[in-house]
Amino acid sequence: MNTDQTTKTLVLKGVGVSPGIAIGRCCRFDPLDSKISFYKLKDESLIPDEVLRFKKALKESEHQLQDIQKNLRKAKITEPVYVIDVHILILRDKIFANRTINYIRESGVNAEWALRMTLDHYKEIFEGVEDDYISSRASDVEYVVQRILRNLSGEKQENVWNVGNESVVVVAHDISPADTAQMKLDKILGFATDSGGRTSHTAIVARSLELPAVVGLNNITRFAHTDDQIIVDGTAGMVVVNPYPDILKRYEEKKRHYEAAKEEYLEFGKLPAMTLDNYHVEVGCNIEFVEEIPSAIAHGAENIGLYRTEFLYIYRDDLPTEEDHFNNYSQVVTNKNLSWSTIRTFDLGGDKFHGHQKQNKELNPQMGMRAIRYSLKEIDIFKTQLRAIWRASVLGKTKILFPMISSVEEIREAKRMLEEARRELGLRGIKIDSRMEIGAMMEVPSAVVIADRLAREVDFFSIGTNDLIQYSLAIDRANERLTYMYEPLHPAVLRLIKRIVDEAHKAKIKVAMCGEMAGDPLCIPVLLGMELDELSMSHLAIPRIKKIIRESTLKESKLILKKALSFSTAPEVRSYVQNYMLKRFPEEFKAEED
Fold it and tell me: From the CB of residue 481, how many other CB atoms can be counted at a distance below 10 Å?
């Protein structure tokens, strides 16, 4: 480790995407960036050979990724496998390949440069997408292009990170699952990257491996060098390069506290979320991939409270078939350790839908043709998914959830389509469940205003706080300059949530919450006071949330809610709740203050 006392200590703030603290030696990773050569083909007779060279590199790249997947499965590391599937799909994508081949033929350039032109084309597309999840997928195309370039250049040597016997913190611009697959995972303490967000592959892989990670640091690779000492605080989103002795000592203590608490939390994960005065809350997990289910169960998930299905549509030249959907959902609903699974129909559309038809560019896609609006417009695509969900329902308890409902007409039309899909399956003689619970996602202010009417149409509500906060406070949650205004404890947000819960219970239907707020320990007493029936969150948040619930009472939570609702400003609410929780749960919240 770099122990030079003249070395400057740097503290960088990023996005904490996987909790915990890593302290160790920095290992800087610079991915193999093949030099992209450029030359014009001397005559047209050389074009077929150049096309063939490109196709051969495509095949070699696919075989290499398949070998990596096999090695992962042998090592019983399943989480990154599905991400490598995405890279293989890109390699097989005819549009991707044909665009490169057309550049070779029409521009008369070498395969490397044609591939670079294709990458530039995709980057331009992704840069115009405002959705954080979709735009962050641009890195997948870059990883694939880099691998093809490596094979075009004749570089057969895989990039193995040789870190020796010492455990290290990996610092990189970004990390692909294929890169991760070749690391000695037992020697990796954590990750820190320039780019990425909560939905980037670095974040997904770090959470699945339960390694601390901070992404979106912008210039960590500029300041951190191999052998520097580094601290990664994945809980607070902080990275310290070459810490002073007193900083190091404080973080070592914080790390010991976190690891001791983690073991304790996992024990709570096995227990029901029951308050001291016997109020029970169902605790579920939000997932995007089937591979996340084992970890969800291990951390205490009682159900799948939200299964996002958008991934099934991304990076496909064709649309997923009914069988594609059915095979995927079957793996979710048949798990005997889960009480039920809530499948949300796809939240895609406008600029976010991948490619079978060109969409008109929208000035504000977050408020455009997306989610249920897009589904009701693209009836065939929608009904394909609905039929598959019906078919899966007979295999295990299944609930269906419609996103971004803003009117009674939308939920009625969605229900009509669901009934049509049921009848179509009946005509085909396919066995399905006699009934399936139907839910409306409450994430639009108009839905909250008419919650009493919507409650008559569905079996349950599920509150999507991420969008509800964004829309009600008029804040783009992807805008870094407005992060400070994105406040779950804003009085307006609390009143909106309370109205949803109250109207649901008046109609005798249950209400869940599946937004990030559900997994925020600070918000738990307020949410308990509202008497939500279910909370669904990231698997890592479950044990701690259960611990707080089990050490609380419904009576005290109602008093906290009443007091919180008496304030006029968000800072007042947050200050009150923070002070209360620090006194009520000193060991829980003191560590975060330190």
Answer: 7
Per-residue pLDDT for 417 more than 50? yes
**Cβ contact 231:240 at 8 Å:** yes
Check if 201 is active-site. yes
Cα gap 258→18, rounded to integer Å: 13
- The pLDDT of residue 63 is 92
Measure the CA–CA gap between 177 and 143, rounded to whole angstroms: 9
pLDDT score for 4: 46
Taking alpha carbons only, the member of 81, 92, 86, 61 closest to residue 181 is 81
Two structure tokens written together for 515: 């937004």
The bridge status of strand 188-193 relative to strand 168-172 is parallel
Which of 65, 80, 91 has its CA nearest to residue 289? 80
Name which residue leads in pLDDT, 250 or 375. 375
CA distance 266 to 545: 11
Q: Say what the pTM is.
A: 0.66
Domain check: are 555 and 534 in the same one?
yes
Domain finish residue from 130, 152, 174: 152
CA pair distance 447, 252, nearest whole angstrom = 47
Catalytic option among 201, 299, 325, 539: 201
267/307 same-domain check: yes
**pLDDT reading at 352 higher than 80:** no
126 is in which domain, residue-wise? Answer: 44-152
DSSP codes of every residue in 311-333 = GGGTT-SSPPPHHHHHHHHHHHH
pLDDT tier at 349, thresholds 50, 70, 90:
low
Whether 514 sits among the annotated catalytic residues: the reply is yes
In a domain, 39, yes or no: no
Tens of pLDDT, residue by residue over 383-395, are 999 999 999 999 9
* Residue 378 sits in the same domain as residue 323: yes
The active-site residue out of 325, 514, 523, 539 is 514
